[in-house]
DUF1864 family protein (Streptomyces iconiensis), 408 residues
Amino acid sequence: MDPLRADGACQALRTWNGTADIAAMAAALRTLVPALPEAGAYSADEALAAMRDLGIFLGSLKRHGTEPLSLVPEALPVLTELGRRTGMVPRDTVHHYCTWNPVGERRRMYTGDAQEAHLQDSVRMVFPSLRDGLEKGSSLSETDPLDPKFALLMDELAALLECMVESITMVIDRVSPHWFARELRPYFEEITVGGRVLLGPAAAQVPLWLLDQVVWASDHAEPEYAEFLRESVPYSLPRWRAFYGHWSVVPSVVSRLVQCYGDDPEAAELRHPQLRLSAEALIRMLRVVIVFRGRHLGIARQAYESEVRLYPVGSGGAGVDLLRQILDLTRQTARMSGGAGVPRHDQAHPLPRTCAGARAAQSRATASTPHGSAVPASAPSAVPAPSAPSDQPAPVPALNGKEAPWRS
Ligand code: HEM
């Protein structure tokens, strides 16, 4: 689809980017911007394609040091209209840059380098599975952990998430972190659209964080991750934004599982053998996410090493430290779901809503011990100390004294 008849200009853009020809880019963008009534008459697919093509020019102009809408202000009402029509932000997102981008000769790219195409493809390949995965997440949010359907849904989700591991493995094999840091990363800078600062179309918008939200993050995220989640939501699709809104006000899947374990996990498992199967399936799913995040952290570290990087943080507005924290939280969740950390709560202190809440609950409990310093065995575990990055899941403590589920 080429509603702006931009095929030729998009091809030329690769050359203009190579020579930093801002004048040529700005002139081409002015020609591409449609009249407002024309944009208003586009079908939904045409509106997405138009945003994609305008977007690649916006990112290119910014990469060469100019705020694109200062140079081509006539694009502003059109971007606003295209955003409104599609229910999305008024600039291009990772969906436009990767998924709604043709392959072959018509592929829209900043550089024309094969590594850029690999990165686009690595992101494109995860979206069908992630879309289905989010629907599974929606079903899981309504499924009782005691229902045999819970483990089945969780295993289906784990299978869908394998594509994330395949994707990052492909990137590790085919994309040089140095090239990414020096050549591609600058195109993903934020731009200002009508007074609003909008992030570039980077892979951090891939909504793995939204799955976290339903599975554990709605009530177990650290403040930095919760903020990253909130800031990522606007770049998401309308249905997924609605998921976020709903999942933010209901207990996470992990919290409901932990609640089923109650004060006496062993008795709970004896009463409900299905509970252990549910916990095992959850951990199998988290294990896939941990493998993705371990490998992803490895390549992100290399691209953001101080001698290599041009920017201190990623184009999603966060740094490698946050990736480390997210990986640690995912591991911690797996440990907690494995049973050793299944918190036992007294009636006065029901399930903490956040890790901070968990720590507060822990200090309340500690304060009530005779010496005030020892952490009682039943208290929820605190965030573990960071360990060396790895693509292997961290060892999971025994499940209520038994072997951890994924090893059994
Ligand atoms: C050269 C390759 C890559 C580098 C250097 C990189 C770097 C980063 C960085 C620094 C962040 C932190 C947020 C931010 O951008 O500000 C991030 C987040 C993220 N990236 Fe990447 N990334 C790469 C490729 C990918 C690919 C191929 C995918 C998936 C298909 C991906 C998925 C994510 C996700 C889902 C997040 C949000 C945090 C999370 O859920 O763990 N990244 N990335």
The first strand starts at residue 191 and ends at 193. Residues 122-407 form a domain with the Methane Monooxygenase Hydroxylase; Chain G, domain 1 fold (CATH 1.20.58.480).
